[in-house]
Amino acid sequence: MLEITPQIRIAESELQERFIRAPGPGGQNVNKVETAVQLSFDIASSPSLPEAVRARLLLRNDRRIDQAGVVRIEAHRHRTRERNRADARERLVALIREATARPRPRIATRPTKGSQRRRLEAKRKRGRDKQLRRVRPGED
């Protein structure tokens, strides 16, 4: 059981792990041992996630989440399979925890009189500067 929050727990059966060879340097060990882990979790069809959390996760613009709603996390930072497995799970927990926080609603505000006045003055100044740079016909 993978605990995200006290209310959200994911069963081991919902997680798929595949062990692959890790990229990068590592000597003789890297070509023989599959220490990197590829962790997959189906967000779209998981009964463990509340609907609001699922919706926020699927709306995220994250390259790890595909069109089918499956998140894939690759971990190959460490030399051992166990540490990479733990790292992948920690990253999945962090991703889901971020989605549990409700975004604060934006409160529309109006620009102040001072900011409006400064904006218009800056536009006038910019227009004057451009006008002074202009070469008029016959003034060559």
TrEMBL record:
The keyword Endoplasmic reticulum is annotated on this UniProt entry: no
Molecular functions per Gene Ontology: peptidyl-tRNA hydrolase activity
Annotated spans, Disordered: 98-140
Biased composition (Basic residues): 115-128
EC number(s) stated in the UniProt entry for this protein: 3.1.1.29
UniProt biased composition (Basic and acidic residues): 129-140
Top-rank taxon: Bacteria
InterPro entries assigned to the protein according to its UniProt record, in alphabetical order: Pep_chain_release_fac_I
Signal peptide: none
Keywords: Hydrolase
SUPFAM superfamilies reported in the protein's UniProt record: Peptidyl-tRNA hydrolase domain-like
Start and end residues of each Prokaryotic-type class I peptide chain release factors domain: 21-37
Name used for this protein in its record: Aminoacyl-tRNA hydrolase
Gene: arfB
